[in-house]
Batch of 2 targets.
Target 1
Amino acid sequence: MPTHVFALSEGKLLALLEEQGEALFQHNASFLMRVYPKGTRFTSSNLDPAPFWRQAGVQMVALNWQAVDAALMLNDAMFANTEGWVLKPAGYHDVHEVSVKKKGLDLTVPVLAAQNLDASKSSTPDVYIKCQLHVESRLEKQEGQIPNEGKSKGGEWKRRSSHRHSHDPDFGGEDLSFLGVENVVPELSFVRFKAMDDVSYQKDRMLGWTCFRLDRFPQGLHLLPLRGADAKPNGSALLVNIRLNWDDSSVR
């Protein structure tokens, strides 16, 4: 039973990870730790929770909830369909008995179609699909450090489809592939989809999103409901045919 909880700002935790990374990981296998955004995030931006979970073994990553960004999407996927907590993977809570189990991954997602995108608007969107893998970065792998000073960003692997001018675009099974991905902890890694409207001379608009932990990502043909910028289901969906293969022997 944990007997204390440490709460650190992201800056202090990053410094501690660099100075005493192994000791920090060992501590968090038996005791609780919370990390929170630094006070200089005046725009309420977020840190990326995934590397704090993976590299430091932190249990609680506090986030700003003013806008649904990548960090909140990952957090939603981590705790989806649970009571608000999940058991750490093997090697994160029993470090003296089991090592962290990492796998190789080949993922191909043929994008078949989407429906009901931006249906409330009379103008027709110019739609493309973004797919990103949030997995261990090169800096995490080689140095055990958290990249980009913990800033929330896109995934380490990124793919996007071609464009379709439609509320109900047909992508014809266009493949979004991620082959030869190494050192993946499935329970702490994620795949994220966004349906985007390509707007000329402006920032592209997000029409819907969904995110999954990789160990929960379903295989086969699926109609994935999408959510809007308020994180609520918006009536749109993405039809995909998921092919996912794990390789226990490909860790390098």
Target 2
Amino acid sequence: MAFVASCANISTHKIQRERRAICGTHRYLRDASTLIPLKVVSNEYVSRKSYGVRMAAPASSKREVPLNIFRPNKPFEATVLSNELIVGEDAPGETWHMIFNTDGALRYIEGQSIGVIPPGLDEKGKPHKVRLYSIASTSHGDHQDDKTLSLCVKRLVYTDPSTGEERRGVCSNYLCDLKANDKVSISGPVGTVMLMPEDQKANIIMLATGTGIAPFRAFLLKAFMENNPDYHFQGNMWLFFGVPTTSSLLYYDELEKMVKENPNQLRIDYAISREQKDANGKKMYIQNRMAEYKEELYEMFHQPNTYVYMCGLKGMESGLDEVMGPVFEERGEDWQEFRKQMKKDKHLLIETY
């Protein structure tokens, strides 16, 4: 099955271009002193109840996951290498891509997060609490030297409903205002939920809104832009990416380059809510775009090597139910039970807010 890009009604001249060189050599993680092996739940096949579908058995994991190398009370001081606005001028809100130098001290793998401790005190006079952000780079970093990590951060600005005053998110504004050579206190890495499957022939479906693209950028770069000696992706990836406007499409050039160079393995469908409408004239959200492929998705969901990832706005969870529920019901199947089993089997992995 050939995978092709779908980019309906996108005006390319409006899209903010971002080009990065992806090159260089790659090395294995060497120091395993603080690496934690993934727990293997079972080495037996697990059935999805009532459907006769057999899940791929999790092979004995050789992957080691670094966790909490640096803790919030003893953070690492990273140095900002760059901080770049990656949306157009007419985008609803600013989103920045920032690269931190870690000197290789804070190791991580794709799908993990780091904590950021903003400077200063909160309204109670206490140090600010740590905020978690998904890492947007592969374990080798954007500079491919194993010494950097990247974040994708949207500046939070909102109106207080009780006072009408403008409010600004403490940490997001701190991060978006960073300049080269600034220092940032970071902790981590944390997280084992959103890690890439070790099956290099897996079907990976990714559902993202806005900055929820961060971990999936790491997935895609690892699969299609790096030449890792120990990882050669042979499966298929399908990204559904929801944004409000064309000018909000993050990493568009990178995504389209990967699709063009890997048409048989990578497919991307955009849902641009303020510019596109579905067949019924409704705004094009992720669930509306997915509905166009509901039969194909139904078949893929039943394949034992399919993993579904979701990162971004919490509303995507009900959107997934809205799309898949009727398809399963038409076939006499219970979507909620199937969904529950997928989560239990770690084939439906969700990180929403």
